[in-house]
Amino acid sequence: MRSRLGAVPGLKIIEAAPLRDYTRFGIGGPARLLADVSSEPAMVEAMRIIQRSGDPHTVIGGGTNLIVTDQGFAGVVLRYTGQAIEIQGAEIEGASVRVAAGAVLQELVDSAIAAGLGGLETMTGIPGWVGGAIYGNAGAYGHSIQERVQSVRCFDGVSVREIGNAACEFRYRDSVFKRHKDWIILSAVLRLDRADPAELRATAEGILKIRNEKYPPSMRCAGSIFKNLILTDLPAAVQARIPERVVREGKVPSAYFLELAGAKGMVNGGVRVATYHANLIYNHGGGTALEVRQLIGELKHRVREQFGIELEEEVQYV
């Protein structure tokens, strides 16, 4: 396996790669092989080699939303690292941007703002790569990336194809790619609008200031641990208990339930819940994946016991 993958042009292999170095949590054991793949042909060839071998494999992006087991991964971890950002028609209304899955989301946001293209500025400060943002339908301040996705180019395990927005089956923090984990996002075309760069930059800077206060860049965390809840999906008895001021765009923050359940400041070994935000777990130092999962389990149990509802993680497990 090592030699066959190593022969693929555009592929770089690291053996026994410590996955804690590739996740924002800073937690996780080693991968037997970590393969960084820089081109579509290389990714397709690597996947076909792995499929023929039958070895376990998984695909990750920037590692922002991952909790990797302390034992690591006894197979191949692939990352598609293509980073190209191509802006087309920036001088007209409705410009399009073709962006590779391995591009850093913040670099895409900055490039769009510099070109005077609006629609992504509310995502400033969200860490990670574009592929992961599409996979999890990332968003903030009432907007999600699904609003701007025209099409997604992916490898479905057999061939490379391009699917439209509807086929992506976007929902709140969800997409078809979460249900087809063997589909690998390679690139996407986004539709953006002409706007004043100065106004876009001012909006982005204001959002970044707030986000950095809540999630300092140096904090080893995955941002919010749990998805917010759709108000109309909650039992009537629970809805009746929620103050109107808490509801935002039809959603109830998980932090509301977690705070009432006493989550703030909880500690489990090297991991903690922030004292100022009940939906923020971070690695305070020497934290383990087991400790994170134990803490998540306890938080879910408390909310279930008190409100009869089930919180769902935003984070993904490897």
From the structure above, extract its key features.
single chain, 318 residues, alpha+beta, Uridine Diphospho-n-acetylenolpyruvylglucosamine Reductase, domain 2, Uridine Diphospho-n-acetylenolpyruvylglucosamine Reductase, domain 3, Uridine Diphospho-n-acetylenolpyruvylglucosamine Reductase, domain 1, 3 domains, 5-stranded antiparallel sheet, 4-stranded mixed sheet, 9 helices, 27% helix
Task: Describe the structure in your own words.
With 318 residues, the chain is an alpha+beta fold. The chain has 3 domains: 2-80, Uridine Diphospho-n-acetylenolpyruvylglucosamine Reductase, domain 2 (2-Layer Sandwich), CATH 3.30.43; 85-200, 2-Layer Sandwich (Uridine Diphospho-n-acetylenolpyruvylglucosamine Reductase, domain 3); 216-317, UDP-N-acetylenolpyruvoylglucosamine reductase, C-terminal domain (Uridine Diphospho-n-acetylenolpyruvylglucosamine Reductase, domain 1, Alpha-Beta Complex), CATH 3.90.78.10. Helices cover 27% and strands 27% of the residues. It has 9 helices and 21 strands. The protein has helices at residues 2-6, 40-53, 105-114, 130-135, 176-179, 197-214, 236-239, 254-260, 289-307; strands at residues 11-18, 30-37, 57-60, 66-67, 73-80, 85-88, 96-100, 117-118, 139-140, 143-144, 149-155, 160-164, 184-191, 193-194, 221-224, 229-230, 251-252, 267-268, 271-273, 280-283, 316-317. It has a 5-stranded antiparallel β-sheet. The longest helix is centred in the last third of the chain and has 19 residues, at 289-307. The two termini are 21 Å apart.
